[in-house]
Amino acid sequence: MTAAKTFITLGLLALLSACGTNAERFTVRAPEVSEKTSIAFTSVEVRDVSLPTYAAAEEIALQLADGRLITSTEVLWADAPERAVALELSQNLARLTGRRIASEPWPFEAFPEARLEVRFAELVATEAGAFRASGQYFVAVTDDRRERSGLFELSVPFDPEGGPTAIAAARGRLVLDLARYIARNGLK
User: Fold this and answer.
1) 63 has which bridge partners?
2) Which 3 state secondary structure label does DSSP give 6?
């Protein structure tokens, strides 16, 4: 069975099992963070995370080999994707660095030393079993240090036969990889 058929079958099963009540919602569990990395800032605000329209939607999308995206209104993310990815990124950065990092709105009295914005050009699971992300990050600072930006292109594998659960786990690993990448390349 191809990944697309598996995804569609899972959506149909969710529809039947819901009996007209609720769609299935899938959470992204935070992967374990075992390493630490240092950064040049004591506090960072994850100010904005911008996703493509398909990735910002509630429906979990799967990209077919020909580039088409398929979704089902019965297979949904448990949280609004832009909010969830911003929280995942800030929590992963906090775990990796041990620094005071939070997504907007900034919850502390003192302003953060740096503000991080991430603009995704792509954030999608493929039927071939890769969860891909590409885009650009921007680090604005409040003092005389140099502001930074950089491009990213990341991918993590997943088993397409695992359906939406595998896709959610892959997104969690990918956002952790992005946090590592930004910590090493944008926050040093």
Assistant:
1) 69, 126
2) helix
CA distance 57 to 81: 7
- 72 near 41, Cβ under 8 Å? no
Q: Check if the beta carbon of residue 45 is closer than 8 Å to that of residue 103.
A: yes
- Which residue from 171, 50, 57, 170 is spatially nearest to 116, judged by alpha carbons? 50
**Structure tokens, 168:** 């959610």
Q: pLDDT tens digits, residue range 163-183?
A: 999 999 999 999 999 999 999
Ramachandran region, residue 89 (left: φ > 0; alpha: ψ -120 to 50; beta: rest): alpha
Which sign does the torsion angle of CA 21, 171, 164, 50 carry?
A: positive
Q: CA-CA distance, 188 to 172, in Å (whole number)?
A: 23
pTM summary value:
0.88
Q: How far apart are CA 56 and CA 64, in angstroms?
A: 18
Cα Rg of the chain (Å, integer):
18
Burial of 14 (0-12, 13-18, 19+ CB in 10 A): buried
Q: Which CATH superfamily is domain 3-185 in?
A: ABC-type transport auxiliary lipoprotein component (3.40.50.10610)
